[in-house]
Amino acid sequence: MKKLMLVAASVVMAAGMVGVAHAGDVEAGKAKYATCMGCHGPTGQGQAIFPKVAGKDVDYLVDVMQKYRAGEAVGPNSMMMMPHAMNLSDQDIADLAAYMASME
């Protein structure tokens, strides 16, 4: 029983470390966001056919950017987003998501 609890505790701790390793850096995301401004606007409020990204949930933003990077269609602007996302690292995505979520 003790061995099972030790294994379970190790798994939980390892899972927590993975989440920490990919925690987004708002300042790094702000610098990376310069590429996004042309379509989503300087404050992330969106413009014309480009959606608002400011204040969205971090998990949602990460999920959508990962799908774009993988070449998955998410919505009507997918073909425009895929080339921008294809070279983003996991950390870039985490940073961008943290910054966009922090925008008001």
CATH architectural arrangement: Orthogonal Bundle
CATH topology, by name, is Cytochrome Bc1 Complex, Chain D, domain 2
The overall number of domains is 1
- N- to C-terminal distance: 49 Å
CATH class: Mainly Alpha
Précis, in short:
This protein is mainly alpha-helical and 104 residues long.
Keywords:
104 residues, single chain, globular, mainly alpha, 6 helices, Cytochrome Bc1 Complex, Chain D, domain 2, 0% strand, 62% helix
Q: How would you describe this structure to a colleague?
A:
There is one protein chain. With 104 residues, this protein is mostly helical. The chain has one domain (24-102): Cytochrome Bc1 Complex, Chain D, domain 2 (Orthogonal Bundle). The protein has helices at 2-21, 26-32, 37-40, 58-69, 78-85, 90-102. The model is unreliable at 4-21 (pLDDT under 50).
SSE arrangement:
Layout: H1 2-21, H2 26-32, H3 37-40, H4 58-69, H5 78-85, H6 90-102
Helix pairs in contact: 2-6, 4-5, 4-6
